[in-house]
Amino acid sequence: MADRKAPPPAGSGPVTAPQHVLLVDSEPGRAALLEQALKDAGYTVDKRTDPNQPLARLVADTQPDMVIIDIDAPDRDVLEQMSHVSRDNPRPIVMYADQDDADFVTQAIRSGVSAYVANGLRPERVKSTLAVAVARFREFQALRQELDDARSELADRKIVEKAKGLIMKHRKVSEDEAFAALRKLAMDRSSRLVDVARNVIDVFEITQE
Predict the structure, then answer these.
(1) Which of 60, 65, 111, 167 could connect to 79 by a Cys-Cys bridge, CB 3.0–4.6 Å?
(2) Which residue, among 130, 72, 60, 122, has the nearest Cα to 97 in the 3D structure?
(3) What is the largest CA-CA distance in the chain?
């Protein structure tokens, strides 16, 4: 089976529904009903398994576009498995369950569930439920990417500030002059400013040893 990457984040291009599904269900009869509903909605169930199987490894091996879990009473182990999937191979996850406890639903969402449907499966709503799950997943992925970018930018800024401070201290120059020196080095080397700043810090640390 060819590898498939995680669905693209929101805003990355035309939104198309995922087609390949990993179905997790402990009851064969119910799983067959859901699988038929998925096929009617245009999805392909690549693999059907039960909740006792290692979900994170199955997702890594099969690379589905979406994970659907249909289970009476999901437990902590299932939530932990979903957390691993969300961390290592993020995918939209839809959970059908009989448990409608608000605290548990909150925990499921925090574990990576994009759509939680309580109290039974309604085949006619499968397509719309999955569409909502994909939209929520992509929105979350976009927000997470923005947060990661912001953290990276802050970390880079701290490195530049440290390098600038070292230049100011050792060359007895102003902040603007130190920054200009860093920027000139970056331009001369065709390098990113933060990479030059790291090199400056490394040089100063070596000379101080």
Answers:
(1) 111
(2) 72
(3) 78
Query: Which strand (E) or helix (H) includes residue 33?
Result: helix 28-40
Query: In angstroms, what CA-CA distances link 90 with 20, 24, 173, 181, 183?
Result: 14, 16, 48, 42, 38
Instruction: Give the mean pLDDT of 112-123.
Output: 77
Structural domains of the chain ordered from first start: 20-146 (3.40.50.2300), 151-208 (1.10.10.10)
The mean pLDDT of 122-128, rounded to a whole number, is 72
Out of 41-45, 56-60, 98-102, which region has the weakest mean confidence (pLDDT)?
A: 98-102
45: tokens are 């169930």
Determine the 3-state secondary structure of 124 from DSSP: helix
Q: Is the dihedral of CA 181, 185, 190, 194 positive or negative?
A: negative
Distances (CA, A) of 138 to 15, 39, 42, 93: 9, 23, 20, 12
- Give the predicted TM-score (pTM) of the model: 0.59
